Amino acid sequence: MEFITNSPQQTEALGSALGEKLQAGTVLAYTGDLGAGKTAFTRGLAKGLGAKDMVTSPTYTIVNEYLSGRLPLFHFDMYRLASADDLWDIGWEDYLERGGVCAVEWSENVTEALENPIFIRLEKVDENTRRITIEGGIDLADLSL
């Protein structure tokens, strides 16, 4: 399903609406260029999961953990990883077993390690507008901004 957002706040609101629907063990596979809104979407996702933490990009840490919501949120940035083998080396299996939600930026770098993810493609249309496509694994019939 495709959504158009016209501000970072709307991108966050969409992430929040999705976060309210997610179950333990969900993997979200993000794709999108720099500045496409992946972190803004994840801020909303965390809010929808009930997390009170400040969400930041995991660019330099590989993974940020947010544990204050109804489910833990593990926010990964795979930009610097060369392959799925690198993901296993940082403990991917341990994160999957912790019963949270794994949001994976630059998922195309580790595709073979992701089982049945929900695919989220974020595209920058212009300075404020984003086209966000969500596919697979979840009923989106009542998802709206």
- What is the overall number of helices? 4
User: In CATH terms, what is the fold-level topology?
Assistant: Rossmann fold
Q: What is the CATH top level name?
A: Alpha Beta
Total beta strands: 7
Structural class: alpha/beta
Strand content: 15-25%
Global morphology = globular
Fourth-tier CATH superfamily name: P-loop containing nucleotide triphosphate hydrolases
Main beta sheet: 7 strands, mixed
Q: Can you name the CATH architecture?
A: 3-Layer(aba) Sandwich
Distance between the termini: 13 Å
Unreliable residue runs: none
Question: Please, could you describe this protein's structure?
Answer:
About 25% of the residues lie in helices and about 25% in strands. By secondary structure, the chain is an alpha/beta fold. It has one domain (about 1-130): P-loop containing nucleotide triphosphate hydrolases (Rossmann fold), CATH 3.40.50. Helix 1 (about 10-20) packs across helix 2 (about 40-50). The longest helix is centred in the first third of the chain and has 12 residues, at about 10-20.
Short description:
This protein is of the alpha/beta class. Helix content is 24%, strand content 25%.
Task: Itemize the secondary structure elements and their pairings.
Blueprint: E1 2-5, H1 8-19, E2 27-31, H2 38-48, E3 63-66, E4 73-77, H3 84-89, H4 92-97, E5 101-105, E6 118-124, E7 130-135
Parallel strand pairs: 2-5, 2-6, 4-5
Antiparallel strand pairs: 1-7, 3-4, 6-7
Helix pairs in contact: 1-2
